[in-house]
Amino acid sequence: MKLETINRQFAIDKQLIFIAGPGGLPVIQFKTRQASATVALQGAHVMDFQPRDASPVLWLSRLSHFKPGKAIRGGIPICWPWFGNHPADSSKPAHGFARNRLWEVTATHRLPNETLQLQMTLKNDTETRQLWPWHFSARLTVTVGHELEVELQIHNRDEKPATCSCALHNYFVISDINDTVITGLEGCRYIDKVADNQPRLQQGPLTITAETDRIYVDTRSDCLIDDCGWKRRIRIAKQGSRSTVVWNPWQEKAAAMADFGNDEYRSMVCVETANAADDRITLAPGEKHRLLTRISVEPLC
Ligand code: BG6
To answer: In the chain, N or C terminus with fewer CB closer than 10 Å?
Structure first.
């Protein structure tokens, strides 16, 4: 659909508009008195969020690809219908196909308190059925106010049960990984993907000093990222999730990725709201699942 047509149908004044973004990819731009945000139609991918009078909250790689069919590096990619590698076929795309496909805008709303909402939908087609043979609809609702709320709803429209894993793969921008502490995971068990998927226990708050790739299991807790350099706290609240993924590729892995600046690992951390590992979801025919992440910032005293 042409931008002009989408704008006619869905734009809200000058506060929510559809424009050509980086690489010509169509994006939705939010600009209100509360915050600004950008969402790409490809992947229903939240690319940035910045509350008024605050600095940006989400990290976006300066080397990210902005090309049709290529995942954007940063922001909030949607990993679905599988998280990580496909459980049985490694030739299928990592983290599923939702982040690489063009979603359709289905609604926009003005809510009280200068809050705006956008809904996008992805439905099965011949290509998705080759990768994942189920009929489905997925809906992403992005609500932009002084907080950012992102809700993924998955609906199994097939006649057979569907098992999937997923994540809202939040990338956060931080002053320096060495000045950052993550709390909310103390005492949780985790699978350490850097150490052959060994199970381990988180002792105390988490500081990152090397490559880190962990699935924390059995946790419904909020996480806090305390950024001592910028004196701010990012709060990540969640619903519909019993697992949290923490990822930082560190120097060597970052350097090996074409869409990741060599030194950029210092200024990012992923704290992902997930249904991963034994927290996979099985949906009966007609059943729905909601996965929600709510992101806010506060000063760190
Ligand atoms: C994390 C995974 O969620 O995403 C890591 O736990 C993975 O294993 C990372 O490397 C990035 O994945 P991708 O496919 O975007 O490079």
So the answer is: C
Catalytic residue among 151, 169, 264, 289: 169
Tokens 């005492």 belong to 187
Domain count, the chain: 1
> 257 lies in which domain range?
3-174+251-295
Reduce the DSSP state of residue 283 to 3 states and report it.
strand
List the CATH number of the domain containing 109.
2.70.98.10
The tens digit of pLDDT for each residue in 100-152 reads: 999 999 999 999 999 999 999 999 999 999 999 999 999 999 999 999 999 99
Residue 236 placed within a domain: no
Residue of 79, 82, 83 lying closest to 71 (CA atoms):
79
pTM over 0.90: yes
Q: What is the dihedral of CA 87, 165, 283, 131, to 10 degrees?
A: -50
Specify if 226 maps to a domain: no
Place of tokens 């790689």: 61
Which of 247, 264, 265 should be mutated for ligand 1, with most atoms under 8 A from CB?
A: 247
Model confidence pLDDT, tens digit, residues 203-220: 999 999 999 999 999 999
Instruction: Give the residue, out of 169, 208, 217, with the most ligand 1 atoms within 8 A of its beta carbon, to mutate for a pocket test.
Output: 169
Give yes or no for a contact between 271 and 25, defined as CB atoms under 8 angstroms apart. no
Using DSSP's 3-state secondary structure scheme, residue 51 falls into strand
Query: Is residue 166 situated within a structural domain?
Result: yes
Decide if 224 is inside a domain: no
Taking every pair of Cα atoms in the chain, the longest distance, rounded to a whole number of angstroms, is: 54
Contact assessment for residue 77 and residue 169, using Cβ atoms and an 8 Å cutoff: yes
